[in-house]
Amino acid sequence: MTMDQQEYEAWVERARAFTTQRMSEARARFGLGSYKRYELDLATAEIRFHDDAGACRLRAEIRVAGSWSSASQSWMWGWENDSVPDEAVAGMSAVAEAGERLGVEKLQRLFGDCDEAEAWSMASLACEILDAESVYRVPGKSSLLFLLLMNIRTVP
């Protein structure tokens, strides 16, 4: 089955609404977005959020959905990035498989001519496909890293 442009755009819209809802739920339930500091550990595929005193208050498993470069205006899926350990992209093959099954090339490989809004769309599609609890965007010097959060839990 190959999706036409109208079906694809409707899917993106649904996925963005799904992701917005999941992010709102994570904000309400766990305070996601209110922590001043985070610690990202790609090797263990985990992110930890710390309170003002430095204590770890929240943990989540992560999957690197991908990264968006403002310099090249391009999107790269996590599995295509050699600097991302296998643990941090475990299960992301489901996104590429969905792209192949539905004839959506953008879900299969990196692409250019991508703005930040489209990067959010790619992360949202991945969030829906993998049923992630939230998406978290990590800023870098010239890129943004989009993480899918799974198994979010508070730390006593």
Architecture overview:
- The protein is α+β, with helices and mostly antiparallel strands and 156 residues long.
- It has one domain.
- The chain has helices spanning 5-30, 93-102, 116-130, and strands at residues 37-41, 46-50, 56-69, 74-77, 111-112, 134-139, 143-154.
- Strands 1, 2, 3, 4, 5, 6 and 7 form a seven-stranded antiparallel β-sheet that branches.
- α1 packs across α3.
- It starts with a helix and ends with a strand.
Gyration radius, rounded: 15 Å
Detail the poorly predicted runs. none
Helix/strand class? alpha+beta
Q: Oligomer, anyone? A: single chain
**What's the overall average pLDDT, rounded?**
96
User: Could you give the distance between the termini?
Assistant: 48 Å
Give the SSE string. Answer: HEEEEHEHEE
Keywords:
single chain; alpha+beta; globular; 156 residues; 33% helix; 7 strands; 7-stranded antiparallel beta sheet; 3 helices
Topology (SSEs and partners):
Elements: H1 5-30, E1 37-41, E2 46-50, E3 56-69, E4 74-77, H2 93-102, E5 111-112, H3 116-130, E6 134-139, E7 143-154
Antiparallel strand pairs: 1-2, 2-3, 3-4, 3-7, 4-5, 6-7
Structure in a nutshell:
The chain has helices at residues 5-30, 93-102, 116-130, and strands at 37-41, 46-50, 56-69, 74-77, 111-112, 134-139, 143-154. It is of the alpha+beta class and 156 residues long.
